[in-house]
Specification:
449 residues, alpha/beta, 6-stranded mixed β-sheet, 11 helices, 21% helix, 20% strand, globular
């Protein structure tokens, strides 16, 4: 029987623009770019040059620190350019794709006969190993950092998040193969939602299935680690996105690198929110063309509204993005009488507006911060939305002052920036908590190197 963990802390934010369970087929414009910034902690070294021809599954860049970790092209075609930023930082490798994708054949494999080293070697050869992240530090892992456990969260509960159960339809075999492959490396935990009904999730084999019942962020993999098998200094766990599990399954079942994702186009500024299949690195103009309302300025987000990054129609689908979100920018908003109005259509956490009386209302939120950064208020508001056994306000203060010993004592090894996304949303001090946590993790990683 599946274990159920009940969580009380958190916050569900109901927004306008949830995707209908409808999928369209896109016609790609053939422009792709794989971006090293999608793989946190990786120092890229490009192994192709403009004019080179590549097939899907051949490496575009490697991790300079661990050269065996390669990052493969999602398509076949001609390398157009290596895009660089300040100080020649590598921003991405652009590819002009073929009409028909040519794949490298890595050969089908029976997962049941493989050992841990065989699975790792197969993922390294195919350039998919870099999609695995690790705690501590919340970075792309390396093959020398063997985990005590592996965690997969199939529950996406952030605002307007894509429904993985919908993505899973017709791909149950690949998902199970991917889970079985991971289970060869270490004990694997699959976290699901208490309301998810998919047989492929509830009855998955070779893994320990745990259901989480509660508001967002119940789907955060860090929350699962904290409640199932917390980590201490010197321990490592791997975390894998459920769509990446599908990538792994397709590799072993077909012998090909297929980075196809089911992406949700969502948000109040989308004419018709729905789903579409896209490849990692595909130009977003393919999806966004003629899909947006034009009455006001919008913010396009690669990912969800809490943890995604700002992009544009000319941007490219991130390696870990399951939704493209479009909300109002809010730069041209003019509110009569400002904060003094009752604001029946504005969302508030602490009942500042009368809108709290309408519990099922969906809101249109824009990208404004609505206030400036100020001194940190020790009000306990972070605790109300972080269902983890840590002291989040004290942890943030220890990171700000650079007290490494305090960071370790207060549980920084267990957290990722996304665990503070909701706290950042409700923060009265308007601090960029995810950035602060990322900087703290980077400092700690450098000190422990």
């Amino acid at each position: 029987m599946t274990r159920v963990i009940k969580l009380c802390k958190g916050l569900d934010i109901n927004l306008v623009g949830e995707a209908d369970k409808t999928k369209i087929k896109l016609r790609s414009n053939g422009r792709f770019m794989l971006q090293p910034s999608d793989f946190v902690g990786v120092i890229p070294k490009v192994v192709v040059k403009p004019g080179d021809r590549v097939r899907a599954g051949e490496p575009l860049f490697i991790n300079k620190e661990y050269p065996e970790v390669k990052f493969s092209s999602p398509v076949s075609g001609i390398v157009d350019s290596v895009v660089r930023g300040e100080r020649r930082k590598i921003l991405g490798v652009r590819i002009n794709a073929d009409t028909e994708i040519e794949y490298v054949n890595f050969g089908k494999k029976d997962v049941e006969t493989l050992k841990a080293n065989d699975v790792i070697s197969a993922l390294l050869d195919a350039g998919l190993f870099g999609f695995i992240d690790q705690l501590p530090y919340a970075v792309s892992t390396n093959p020398k950092a063997m985990p005590k456990a592996i965690f997969v969260s199939a529950l996406r509960d952030k605002p307007l998040a894509g429904d993985f159960e919908y993505e899973l339809i017709g791909q149950e075999k690949d998902f199970q193969t991917g889970l079985s492959a991971l289970s060869k490396i270490a004990k694997t935990y699959l976290g699901i939602g208490a309301k998810q009904k998919s047989e492929a999730l509830n009855n998955a084999s070779d893994v320990t299935v745990t259901a989480f019942d509660g508001p967002c962020p119940a789907g955060n993999v860090g929350v699962h680690v904290n409640h199932i098998d917390p980590i201490n200094k010197g321990e490592i766990v791997w975390t894998v996105d459920p769509t990446v599990v599908l990538f792994f399954g397709r590799l072993f079942n077909t012998g090909k690198v297929d980075m196809r994702r089911t992406v949700a186009l969502v948000g109040s500024e989308v004419i018709k929110p729905l789903y579409a299949d896209m490849l990692v690195g595909e130009e977003l103009n393919t999806l966004l063309s003629n899909s947006l309302k034009t009455e006001r300025e919008v913010r396009i987000i690669d990912g969800n509204v809490l943890t995604g990054k700002k992009t544009s129609k000319d941007g490219f689908l991130g390696a870990h993005s399951s939704e493209i979100t479009v909300i109002p920018e809010g730069s041209n908003t003019d509110e009569f009488a400002g904060w003094i109005m009752p604001r029946l259509k504005q969302f508030s956490v602490n009942r500042s507006y009368f809108s709290w009386l309408f519990r099922n209302r969906k809101y249109v939120l824009d990208a404004r911060v609505k206030g400036g950064e100020r001194h940190m208020i020790m009000s306990g508001e972070y605790d109300s939305v972080i269902p983890m056994d840590i002291f989040p306000e004290y942890l943030i203060k220890s990171i700000i002052v650079g007290d490494i010993d305090k960071m370790e004592q207060l549980g920084i090894y267990e957290v990722a920036p996304e665990d503070f996304a909701l706290a950042e949303f409700i923060d009265s001090s308007k601090l960029q908590l995810q950035r602060i946590v990322r900087e703290g993790l980077d400092v700690l990683r450098k000190e422990n190197a």
